[in-house]
Amino acid sequence: MSACDQPPELIVYGCASHKTILHMQQIRHEDKKISLLAFLAQRSIKIASACNGKGLCQKCNVWFNSKKILACQQTLDSLSEALNGQNDSCRIVLTVDYL
Ligand code: FES
Q: pTM of this prediction?
């Protein structure tokens, strides 16, 4: 069973700016199915990409749970599932080095 029964919260933190770039209290269901790269682009958050999300260029790295992930190969749904069973499991925190 998930430790969190409510829609997750999302925080995108920029390392270069030392600022919170995006903070959403709840993620809409329809937004959980698209790639993280597309989701962030829809909110004018530019993540490096040279292959249009095909998973080839390896430029769309963001940090999640102390690991680098490819934003084009993940959805918020998959990140939510990765949080299951962990502390603070209702919060997805992403960090981007150059933002
Ligand atoms: S956009 Fe190229 S690997 Fe993600």
A: 0.89
Amino acid at 16: A
Atom index in ligand 1 nearest the CA of residue 48 equals 1
**Ligand 1 atom closest to Cα of residue 71:** 4
Could you tell me whether strands 9-14 and 61-64 are parallel, antiparallel, or unpaired per DSSP bridges? unpaired
CA distance 28 to 71: 18
Indicate which CATH number applies to the domain containing 28.
Answer: 3.10.20.30
Q: Is the pLDDT of residue 29 over 60?
A: yes
The one-letter amino acid code at 84 reads N
Domains identified in the chain, total number: 1
- Expressed in angstroms and rounded, the spacing between residue 16 Cα and the centre of ligand 1 is 21
